[in-house]
Amino acid sequence: xxxxxxxxxxxxxxxxxxxxxxxxxxxxxxxxxxxxxxxxxxxxxxxxxxxxxxxxxxxxxxxxxxxxxxxxxxxxxxxxxxxxxxxxxxxxxxxxxxxxxxxxxxxxxxxxxxxxxxxxxxxxxxxxxxxxxxxxxxxxxxxxxxxxxxxxxxxxxxxxxxxxxxxxxxxxx
Length: 173
Prior knowledge:
Elements: H1 2-14, H2 20-23, H3 28-53, H4 60-64, H5 68-71, H6 76-83, E1 92-100, E2 109-112, E3 119-124, E4 131-138, E5 147-149, H7 151-156, E6 165-171
Parallel strand pairs: 1-5, 2-4
Antiparallel strand pairs: 1-6, 2-5, 3-4, 3-6
């Protein structure tokens, strides 16, 4: 039985190979002359090709990979200022469950349905006791809906980047 199935499988798998050049408008006679002239021009093209393919340096993903440290574009001074204890306590807005928002969106922010207008605020992680000053950005939905937090803010309050974390939200006082 395997003597019949194996050859049939090979024939079926290779049956379309001859038509691949037709499907991609490739002609064997066209590729050979180009290959013959390519060695004289290839080094110059190879030298410029990586520069053209490199994404802009402003992108944190392009410059440092996809680790949390590479994506966190806040400076040490910004992190220090955000984690500093507030001079006065603001009004408590409530608690919300947060998840990681867009990791490439810079800044310290919380998109939450707990506010109607953009304003300064503070989030506190009750599990760690750490808090951070953030910009509170309105998010459509009921007040009981979850919120999205920036990667730098999650890191400052000691929250997991992959888990859902309950935080206390207040206005900045």
